[in-house]
Amino acid sequence: MPIHIIPYEEQYLLQSIAIWNEVVQEGISFPQLDLLKEADGHSFFSEQNDTGLAIEQETERVVGLYILHPNNIGRCGHLCNASYAVLPSFRGQGIGELLVKDCITEAVKKSYRILQFNAVVATNQVAIHLYKKLGFQQLGVIPGGFLMPDGSYEDIIPHYLDLTKMQSDSAAAYVDGSYNAVTKEYSYGMVILVDGQEITDSKKGSDLELAAMRNVAGEIKGAQAAMQYALDHGIKNLTIYYDYEGIAKWCLGEWKTNKQGTKAYKAFYEQAKQKVSISFVKVKAHSANHYNDMADALAKQAIGMS
User: Fold this and answer.
1) CATH at 30
2) What number is the average pLDDT over the span 217-225?
3) Residue 197 pLDDT level (bands cut at 50, 70, 90)
4) Which pairing describes strands 61-70 and 50-56: parallel, antiparallel, or unpaired?
5) Amino acid 1: pLDDT
6) Cα(first)–Cα(last) distance of the chain, in Å?
7) 241 lies in the same domain as 279
8) Per DSSP, what are the bridge partners of residue 193?
């Protein structure tokens, strides 16, 4: 079930409202009591610092979302807050983790220093386990801080993540590939986001066997270059954003590696993951994703197609 994360688009408004309202109606994790109305929905999602949608690739269905916004103002304006929602039928499949990781990446891009959750309900053990896995710290317990649907009061456990530490040992990489049919050269473009910096790289190649894979050769070389960067710079957590599905599927064993190029790519990933935690997020090609477009342009420039 391939999932890709995209920025909110108005065409997904009704699906996004339905997911949000379902969590509100459950009444066990969101503090809101009022349902989001269609008339207010677009402004609600579009006026956030960022709204990310988890899209099921085969159906283009929205199966989850997050919103990111400031948690305070002025001298505390560097603190941000977020909320996450996943359709009940899609829970337990890692979509929540993809959403949180993408949200963290966006928060770092926007120069936030702390991601704080104010009201994690103590009974929401799935979320608490995920936040612990991703490095969040608990801030204690507020007794009876959340009104449950049955009228009882449940404890809440505020959490925070120091994004300045995330910057030092985590990175996001956007990769893309291209091919020049005239010169028989392939290439990759890569944008690395780390420590608040944008680091770009591109390279072309002409190996005959790889060139037979056309732009796919560039795609896998770009992903491999991102992994090598993480290894060379002591990056512990790497998220690779890609638009060609094989980038993740070959690594994760969902596609067979029939060609020498894909076999070498899978072998490289198996070695790299011993030292780097690598996750994959699919982005929609040519969807006005700034960094994906940058990677695409870099790849084209490398083989003289800009």
Assistant:
1) 3.40.630.30
2) 97
3) confident
4) antiparallel
5) 60
6) 34
7) yes
8) 172, 198
